[in-house]
Every structure is written in structure tokens, then in C-alpha cells.
Amino acid sequence: MKIYRFPKKEQWAEIVERPRLDLTKLNETVSAVLADIRQRGDEAVKEYELKFDKAALTGLAVTEQEMDEAETLVSNELRDAIILAHHNIKVFHISQRFVGQKVKTQEGVTCWQKSVAIERVGLYIPGGTAPLFSTVLMLATPAKIAGCKEIVLCTPPNSEGKVNPAILVAARIAGVSKIYKIGGVQAIGAMAYGTQSVPKVFKIFGPGNQYVMAAKQHVSLDDVAIDMPAGPSEVCVLADETANVEFVAADLLSQAEHGIDSQVLLITTSEQKLQEIQAETNRQLELLPRKDIAVQALDNSRYVLVSTADEMMALSNAYAPEHLILQVKNYEQMAEQVVNAGSVFLGPYACESAGDYASGTNHTLPTHGYATAYNGVNLDSYCRKITFQHLTPEGIGHIGRAVELMAGAEQLDAHKNAMTVRMKSLNIEH
Predict the structure, then answer these.
(1) Which of 104, 123, 132, 186 is 20 to 30 Å from 244 by CA-CA measure?
(2) Which portions of the chain are predicted below pLDDT 50?
(3) Dist. CA 85–CA 91, nearest whole Å
């Protein structure tokens, strides 16, 4: 953990920089795997499953029998927790439904929008060191609310060809249509191109490792849309002299255990709190089962001591964190100053874990500074807005001449003529 005390503005670029890796060889591997899947379909997918997941699969689809078996392997207590989280996510995302209205821009000219669901979406759910069944809820629930006709899910199996049962239970609760035992780059390729078993989707959602992220960006160039570009997960905590040291340390470590390339950033106005948080983080770190992962993530991380609350927020906005936690006394006032962030957690009791699982907000968020331009997954992520317009003869009278003039000025005579013939038919001067 690197510590900066009262850094000058010129140092901010260094503070907000993310870890960078040379992805040249990775991209070459990803391109080769995707090309193979595009050409050979299921056969190639099964070969890569054997190679990467050590699973010898005869079929790629999860069967109803396997879905039923998963129900018996998940405790009632965990199932109830999944149902509670699904309810809250559903309630929050239902509130985001678009209500269009017809607008008269001129007499006789009416314009409006209609929200239409993407018909077929693909969800990728990691299943390696941490099978993210919570992400199933985050991605499938809004897809179902939006009205997507087909929700396709890919997730890696274990070496016995089995999918984590909690992932399957969450998928059934959230309304997933089809589930396939495919992980990594091969899953992205299968959904992007379609295979004999896996239908081609129109948009792919979900997190993953560097290979998965590279594959998503590759297929987005010409084959399918993706939710957002993404990198390793991250959190920024703003803490003043009132911050609860134990809570802050726990929040930093909950992020650090995600992966070795995760990053945490603490910004504080208190030297005493900085030292106390550092000591408490080290104490809690020793108790973590995923300590080895968290230690490496903390190597990418920074503690920053600044002079004022305004400076804390300015640095946070420059960082544009995926998760922003405000452990400060005036958190409501500071929240108004947030410009760049994926999801914001206010006050001592709003831990990132709440949003990751069960408060109702979505945990699929922009990372790597993309919060300057992207938002997290929401209901609109699964919809398109189609615009409509209707013109009456009166409307032609109001805008016809302007259309002719503008089309003529752009030397697009056919455009001009499309309006001219209508004006002539209505005996409107032009």
C-alpha cells in the first residue's frame, strides 16, 4: 500500500492510475480462440472446455434434471437469501421503466419514443475461484423486467461437468431461458457467433477475467453489442475524522479479495485515521481465507491524506471509481458533489457488500475510470428507444420549407425532393 501525504495536483495522475498489463499475447490467444469457435462451433467449444476447465462434455446445455438437482444442493437459508435479494433488485429495476410521451414540436408534427426490449441477450457468469450467483440476479432480473424474449446464460462447469448449484437456483428464480456449461473466451464466442447448440445473441453482459473482457471487446467490434468495457474491480473510500476504522478496513478488504488486480483507494483528511485504518486493515487481513489474493491487490492500492473535504471529492471524481463509499459526517452534502462514480454508498452502514448482493441496486458497474462516460447496468441496458413521428398537412406547412432549404444546402437533392413532392401535392408554396 503506497501512502501519499498532501500530494500536489501534478501527482493526481499517478494516484488515479490503474495497473496496466501488456495484453498483446493475450489478445492474440483470444482472437485465435474466437476464430476457431466461429468456424467450428460446438466442436471447438467442447475442446476448449476440456483444455481450460478440464471438463469432458457430451452436451453443452444444462438439463432440467440438473436444475432440479441443484435445488436439493442449496440450503433453504441460502435460497431464502437469494429470493430476498431478487425481490429487492426487481423492485428497484421496475421503478426504472420508461414512460414515453407524445410531443408536438410544431402544430401537425408529433414525435415520441417507445422502449423496446432487446429480443435475445447473453449473460456471462464467472464460476472460478468465486462463482458469482449474485451476478445472475443482477443481470437476469432486469432482462426479465425489460421483456427480453430469450435470456441465454453461459458459465464454466467444474471438472465433472457440473455447474455451481447456487448459480442454477438463482437462474431459475430470475427467469433465465437457457443455460450452457461454457466458460471463458469460448462462452463469449459461442454467444456472439452462435453455434449448433448456443443461439446467437444481440448483446452480451457480465464480468470476467482479462481473457473474457478482451473477448467481449473483440466481438463488439463487428458482431454483437456489450454492456460496457471493464477492467479489474475497485473501490474508493472517503473517510474523515468521524469514520469508523473497523468498517473502513473491512470495506477496503472486501474489495481487495476480489482478485490480485483489484485496487482500493482510501482518501482521508485525518492523519490519525490513516494510521488507524492501516493498522486495522493489517489486523483483519490476517484473518482472511483469501489473504494471498488481498495482499497482492493491496500492492496496487493507495492511501491519500489531503487537507479538505472538497479536495477529497475532487480527487475521487478524478479517479472515477466503480464503487465510492462516503464514510464522512456530511455524506448527504458530499453526495451532491459526486460527478464520476459507478455506485455510491452513503454513511457508515452502507457497505459495498450491500449493493453487491441485496440492497437492490445493480453491481455490474463501470471500472478502470469508465465511470466518466458509462453508467452501470440498469433497465435501459436491455432496451432500445425507437423514435416515431407523424406529420399532417399542417405539419408539412410548418416545417416543409425549412427541410427543403437545409437539404439543398447540404446538396442532398433527393432529400429535398422527398419534401418538395409532398408540398406540391398539398399546394404549399416552396
Answers:
(1) 132
(2) none
(3) 10
